[in-house]
């Protein structure tokens, strides 16, 4: 029985190599009849999976819809029987059947089959999937990727000393080079494939087509015609509709180049019919392209229109999915590395799980008495854990409902980092102050020294001021976090935005003058008098405007300090206007400007360009949150280094 199973598996694998994604196939009826007879006999599920795969191979060269149906049957049975090798074979067959209609899905199936083959060190299945993936990249005109996969498959064939597989890989490489018009390389690999196939008495229908392509492009028309005709004869004998399409279209192209339109139309029609019978959409596209050109040249408008319509339908189907594939392929290599790492991680976890189970069994024998004794304690602990888990799920649900809490981890890390600095300073200066008190007490016990006492008291006073400063900074950080938490909680009320803007601008300007006596800037208002009242949370929006105006005044003062006196006039402009369904508020300055690198991070919590102690980095993050989450609007920044910055607020007007 074991030898019978091995013979059956060898037969199925032979069918796979000669038909699935290769360039040769067996005869249609005898092979199918033989396989059907085997399926009707009592078979183990594993054998039946391989038989379904072999039948799918046979149908793939004739009708892809039937090939797809048998591939589905093989996949379902393999998964039900937990036959991993058979699942990999079935995934590859299903990908081959779907490749013409759904490139993206086919690539996913080939990749899944390849992962199974790599996990179970199945080199033959690895080579088959590498070749199948290479075909997709050749379709996408990705020369480097396509040839890379082809050569990987060839190296596995050489490692296995599987010469029949090497014939397929060599021919595929030759066809790829022909597609890229590298005729010397195409000829080299096709001749290698042809010589090896003749020695093995293997099929040469695809190889003959490849040799015909090289000869036609090199102007050796008589040789090209001979190669194409031999490929047609061999393909017909094998019942191989795909290779028939290739050879017919190649011969039709040759006759078109020679100006023999009747012959070109005849063979192009045969190629189109063969491709349609097989479900080979690219073959239909190539044949209909030739027929459209031929009938246009002859002036047969109706026939030209007929095949042009077919051509356009094929282009929409094929090129549309190729565009999607090119977009999906942008990060394919990164995804592939991630998948490989994930597979390795899974294998490592499996080993750890095995070791853990062994250790657990040993530990259970030792701890069984303790487990019985503490059973009730564990029950209470489990109940407490379940209650905690329920509370955690409730809290998690509440957190998910608030969009800004998605930044919880980042904000928590930022709070810890930002609070660490002022608290470290507080601790440091407190320790120094303690030392100073000890010193003055010691000095007083020894002798009264007024000068020493004054120096120590001055140092103590400075330390206390530093402690106060850094304590205020920690308070500001905590206050900013609290404002983050309660943003948008107040009700909205109709508000005169122009008045709110004016108030916050003057408040920011007065604060700047108070902090920096002698500072002056030109304040310009461009407020729309027809602006209607807008329902907003006035305190929250006021904080946003105050923060933007304060930042603008800070920027112009920084630029003023960088330039000689009299060369620069600080200016801040605020404006408002009504748009369709919204209002826009702008705060502009002619300050230092913001680089593109900084603009990308400007709304992140705790990110600030101000020196340490002058800002918490929460202002713009909070402002963005108030506008976007609290009011459903947008806050955008436009800036040019050395020219100035504009912050643009857009608020929806609700009826």
TrEMBL record:
Transmembrane segments: 354-372
GO MF terms held by the record: ATP binding
EC number, UniProt record: 2.7.13.3
Entry-linked CDD domains: HisKA
Name under which the protein is recorded: histidine kinase
Any Pfam family matching the protein: HATPase_c
Organism name: Hymenobacter cellulosivorans
Catalytic activity: ATP + protein L-histidine = ADP + protein N-phospho-L-histidine
Database matches in InterPro entries: HATPase_C_sf, HATPase_dom, His_kinase_dom, HisK_dim/P_dom, HisK_dim/P_sf, Sig_transdc_His_kin-like_C, TPR-like_helical_dom_sf, TPR_rpt
PROSITE patterns for the chain: HIS_KIN (PS50109)
Signal peptide: 1-27
Domain Histidine kinase per the UniProt entry, residue ranges: 414-655
């Amino acid at each position: 029985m074991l030898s019978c199973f091995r013979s059956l598996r060898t037969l199925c694998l032979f069918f796979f190599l000669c038909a699935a994604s290769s360039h040769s196939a067996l005869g249609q009826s005898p092979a199918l009849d033989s396989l059907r007879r085997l399926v009707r006999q009592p078979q183990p599920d594993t054998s039946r999976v391989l038989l379904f795969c072999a039948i799918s191979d046979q149908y793939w060269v004739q009708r892809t819809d039937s090939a797809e149906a048998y591939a589905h049957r093989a996949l379902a049975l393999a998964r039900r029987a937990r036959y991993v090798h058979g699942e990999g074979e079935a995934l590859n067959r299903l990908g081959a059947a779907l490749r013409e209609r759904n490139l993206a899905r086919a690539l996913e199936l080939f990749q899944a089959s390849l992962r199974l083959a790599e996990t179970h060190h199945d080199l033959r299945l690895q080579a088959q999937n590498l070749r199948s993936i290479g075909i997709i990249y050749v379709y996408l005109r990705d020369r480097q990727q396509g040839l890379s996969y082809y050569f990987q498959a060839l190296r596995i064939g050489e490692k296995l000393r599987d010469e029949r597989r090497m014939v397929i890989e060599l021919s595929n490489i030759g066809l790829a080079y022909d597609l890229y018009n590298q005729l010397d390389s195409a000829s080299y690999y096709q001749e290698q494939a042809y010589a090896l196939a003749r020695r093995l008495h293997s099929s040469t229908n695809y190889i003959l087509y490849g040799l015909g392509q090289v000869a036609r492009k090199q102007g050796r028309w008589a040789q090209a015609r001979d190669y194409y005709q031999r490929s047609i004869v061999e393909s017909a004998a094998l019942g191989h509709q795909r290779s028939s399409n290739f050879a017919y279209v190649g011969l039709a192209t040759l006759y078109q180049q020679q100006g023999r339109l009747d012959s070109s139309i005849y063979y192009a029609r045969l190629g189109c019919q063969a491709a349609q019978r097989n479900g080979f959409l690219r073959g239909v596209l190539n044949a209909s392209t030739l027929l459209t050109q031929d009938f246009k040249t002859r002036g047969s408008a109706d026939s030209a229109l007929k095949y042009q319509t077919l051509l356009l339908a094929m282009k929409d189907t094929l090129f549309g999915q190729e565009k999607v594939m090119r977009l999906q392929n942008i990060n394919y290599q990164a995804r592939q590395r991630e998948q490989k790492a994930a597979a390795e991680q899974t294998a490592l976890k499996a080993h750890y799980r095995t070791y853990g189970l062994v250790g657990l069994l040993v530990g259970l024998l030792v701890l069984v008495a303790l487990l019985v004794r503490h059973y009730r304690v564990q029950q209470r602990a489990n109940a407490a854990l379940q209650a905690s888990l329920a509370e955690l799920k409730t809290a998690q649900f509440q957190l998910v409902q608030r969009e800004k809490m998605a930044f919880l981890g980042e904000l928590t890390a930022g709070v810890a980092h930002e609070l660490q600095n002022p608290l470290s300073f507080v601790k440091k200066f407190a320790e120094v102050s303690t030392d100073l008190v000890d010193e003055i007490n010691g000095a007083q016990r020894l002798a009264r020294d007024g000068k020493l006492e004054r120096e120590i008291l001055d140092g103590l006073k400075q330390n206390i001021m530093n402690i106060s400063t850094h304590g205020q900074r920690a308070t500001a950080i905590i206050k900013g976090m609290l404002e983050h938490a309660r943003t948008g909680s107040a009700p909205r009320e109709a508000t005169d935005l122009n008045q709110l803007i004016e108030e916050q601008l003057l408040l920011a300007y007065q604060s700047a003058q108070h902090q920096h006596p002698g500072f002056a800037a030109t304040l310009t208002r461009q407020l729309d008098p027809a602006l209607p009242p807008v329902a907003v949370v006035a305190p929250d929006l006021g904080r946003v405007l105050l923060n933007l105006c304060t930042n603008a005044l800070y920027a112009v003062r920084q630029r003023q300090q960088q330039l000689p006196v009299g060369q620069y006039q600080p200016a801040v402009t605020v404006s408002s206007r009504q748009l369709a369904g919204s209002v826009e508020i702008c705060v502009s300055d002619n300050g230092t400007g913001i680089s593109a690198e900084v603009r990308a991070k400007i709304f992140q919590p705790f990110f600030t360009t101000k020196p340490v102690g002058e800002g918490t980095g929460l202002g713009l993050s909070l402002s963005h949150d108030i506008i976007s989450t609290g009011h459903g609007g947008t806050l955008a920044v436009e800036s040019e280094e050395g020219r100035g910055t504009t912050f643009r607020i857009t608020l929806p007007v609700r009826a």
